[in-house]
């Protein structure tokens, strides 16, 4: 199925094998180039890269112009960060450091319209600039994807409870943060793998989807066997570096 915004959540919930990547550079042009590829989705990384709201807005616009799904990894789970990304028209969000049931419930509420939830506006890009009715905007908002990033030791203690929170579509395993938190040097170290498997088990039990980042692409088969269906791999930085490496290997 060709990637497009409207069916992205449906594809995720159907446990299709989805491959995306991170955009680390605040550039609408880079977003436009990546939107023209066959990648399933892109993740705008506002947590670890210098994206402000204008940058997010411009990049989301480029992805939407090509009907390419885009999710925003927000700076935090603060309601204003979630609101900004979704009002710009992102297909969904990745919320970092979801380490408690209370935080999971809060971000789930902040993602959906309703009492004490996401603030409603009918004038945004997500609302087609007043081109949709209230009912249409609510229906469209319900297609947004909420991915909770699990990367803290505190989250492991309550992972079954986090996975059971209504409104969370996917648990994304933060392998590198878990590596550091567990005092390890590699995401392939046994304590990290065991922690990631624990997250997979909790997601499978609660009928949630699971996502992961792996540096070694050979590891994807291992995680697919454990129920992972969404992969965020590499970034445009990696593509550039690999492209230069390939160029030099072929010409020198």
DSSP strand count: 8
Radius of gyration: 18 Å
CATH class, named Alpha Beta
Number of helices: 12
Write a structural description.
- The chain is an alpha/beta fold and 252 residues long.
- It has a single domain, classed as Alpha-Beta Barrel (TIM Barrel).
- The chain is built from twelve helices and eight strands.
- An eight-stranded parallel beta barrel has the order 1-2-3-4-5-6-7-8, surrounded by six helices.
- Strand 1, helix 2 and strand 2 form a beta-alpha-beta unit.
- The longest helix is centred in the C-terminal third of the chain and has 16 residues.
- The N and C termini lie far apart (40 Å).
SSE layout:
Blueprint: H1 8-13, E1 18-23, H2 28-35, E2 41-45, H3 53-65, E3 70-73, H4 79-87, E4 92-95, H5 101-111, H6 134-141, E5 145-150, H7 153-157, H8 159-163, E6 170-173, H9 175-181, H10 190-205, E7 209-212, H11 220-224, E8 228-235, H12 236-251
Parallel strand pairs: 1-2, 1-8, 2-3, 3-4, 4-5, 5-6, 6-7, 7-8
Helix pairs in contact: 2-3, 4-5
List keywords for this structure.
252 residues; alpha/beta; TIM Barrel; 8-stranded parallel beta barrel; 8 strands; 43% helix; 16% strand
In short:
The protein is α/β, with parallel strands linked by helices. It contains twelve helices and eight strands.
């Amino acid at each position: 199925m060709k990637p497009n915004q409207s069916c992205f959540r449906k594809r995720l919930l159907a446990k299709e094998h989805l491959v995306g990547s991170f955009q680390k550079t605040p550039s609408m042009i880079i977003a436009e180039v990546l939107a023209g590829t066959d990648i399933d989705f892109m993740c705008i990384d506002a947590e670890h890269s210098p994206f402000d709201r204008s940058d997010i807005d411009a990049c989301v616009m480029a992805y939407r112009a090509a009907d390419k799904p885009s999710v925003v990894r927000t700076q935090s789970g603060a309601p204003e960060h979630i609101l900004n990304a979704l009002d710009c028209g992102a297909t969904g969000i990745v919320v970092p450091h979801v380490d408690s049931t209370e935080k999971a419930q809060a971000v789930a509420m902040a993602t959906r319209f309703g009492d004490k939830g996401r603030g409603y506006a009918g004038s945004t890009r997500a609302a087609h600039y007043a081109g949709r009715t209230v009912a249409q905007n609510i229906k469209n908002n319900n297609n947004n994807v909420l991915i909770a990033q699990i990367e803290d030791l505190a989250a492991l203690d309550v992972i079954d409870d986090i996975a059971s929170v209504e409104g969370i579509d996917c648990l994304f395993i933060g392998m590198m943060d878990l590596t550091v938190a567990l005092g390890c040097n590699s995401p392939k170290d046994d304590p990290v793998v065991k922690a990631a498997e624990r997250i997979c088990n909790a997601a499978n039990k609660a009928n949630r989807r699971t996502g992961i980042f792996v540096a070694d692409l050979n590891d994807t088969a291992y995680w697919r066997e454990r129920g992972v269906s969404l992969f965020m791999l590499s970034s445009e930085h990696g593509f550039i570096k690999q492209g230069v490496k390939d160029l030099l290997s072929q010409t020198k």
